[in-house]
Fold:
Amino acid sequence: MPLERLTEHTFEVDLEGVGFGMRDVDDNRTVRCLLTQEALTDVFKASDRSRWLGAFRENRDEIEAAATDIYDTGISAEPVRVTTAELSSRF
Structure:
């Protein structure tokens, strides 16, 4: 059940982190994902909320790859939460 990047800009900053959408390749369904505040602070050193979107954009490929890996396990509910634990081996 791989995910792919949506062509439109589907990301937003909220209190929990950066939300973004991806598409399930198998059924063409949009899947909501979240890069958590914890990961933004711990992995990307973006403790200031004004830097979150920049950190997401700069590292989007790896963040989306992590979201796909989580989704592929089949045990994640939506939103697919990308946390420090999932990113620690990538950075």
User: Anything to note?
Assistant: The first helix runs from residue 37 to 42.
